[in-house]
Amino acid sequence: MTLRSAFSGVLVAGIVGLLSLAFISVPQYAHAGTGLTIQPIKISQTMKPGDSVSGKILLSNASEDDVVVDISIQDFIPTAGTETFQFVGRAPGVTTVRDWISFDGTKDQFIFKKGEAREIPYTIQAPASAEPGSHFGVLFFKATRVQDAEAQIKVGTQVGVLVFVTVPGKFEQKGTITKFGVPSFVQSGPVPFTMTFENQGTVHFEPKGTIEITNTFGTKVGSVPIEGYAVLPTGIKAMNFGWHVNGLLLGRYNATASVYDVDGNLLSTASANFYAVPIWYMVGFIVTLLVIFFLIRFVKTRLKFSISLKK
To answer: pTM (2 decimals)?
Structure first.
């Protein structure tokens, strides 16, 4: 290997490492090799002004080295009309989620041994002056190899836990299903459904409801729960669900999605039709019939049966 090619390889690796820092992800489970794994990925609480709630975060070192972990807290705000949000350090307001969270007995920086796991206790204290509505924050955990901790440019991995706090009061909770779809034709389960929900309220909303499936005769044959997603105010969210059905599907079906608010009131509904055509079952059936037909024909043309009667 020449000196020039070696230098080029190091340069490319450095650029890739730096670019990776520009995209901060909040994964469900960080993959082994990225440094840290974390559970849960989301904390959602409804708190009155002056209330406090405590919990624990499970953090594990999945890397091949001892690391230095730095803990930080930031606020974030939704980007209107999209699924994204922006980390802003501190959101507008007298106090924010960043000021409400503390880590009980855990330093902002500590050494994490290879393979070590520990519970990080936290407390969320809503001030007496907390404004009604949704408040958002993120708890960041950044891992840097111990041998790189004193470097001027620290290349590490960052994972986080999203925090959603709703303070009761005068706020609006509403939204609508803007898109609901299913493939026009399916052969078997699971049947995939896609739904896009727009939050038109003033607080974050976790759509809950059901997708009910009926057959050609209007008989209910299945149901899929709508859950597991949070939509920020003014934001939209694309969701995916699956109908894991057992048995044969055949004919025309209707799927109706319904979303309700926390009081059980219907917010929005949407429907879509699809057809189930089990092609491989039909092909197998036709092939079986053809085999039987030609077998009978062969027997008739090639084999002759005679009955002799002895006197």
So the answer is: 0.62
Q: Do 46 and 99 fall into the same domain?
A: yes
Distances (CA, A) of 108 to 43, 154, 190, 273: 20, 17, 46, 54
Convert the pLDDT of each residue in 126-175 to its tens digit. 999 888 888 899 999 999 888 776 665 556 788 999 999 999 888 788 89
Residue 165 tokens, joined:
């706090």
What letter would DSSP give residue 205? B
Per-residue pLDDT of 3-54, as tens digits, reads 333 333 333 333 223 223 333 334 333 333 447 999 999 999 999 999 999 9
**Residues 213, 250: one domain?**
yes
Q: How far apart are CA 39 and CA 87, in angstroms?
A: 21
Give me the CATH number covering residue 267.
Answer: 2.60.40.10
Domain assignment of residue 309, yes or no:
no
- Count of helix runs (H) and strand runs (E) in the chain: 3, 18
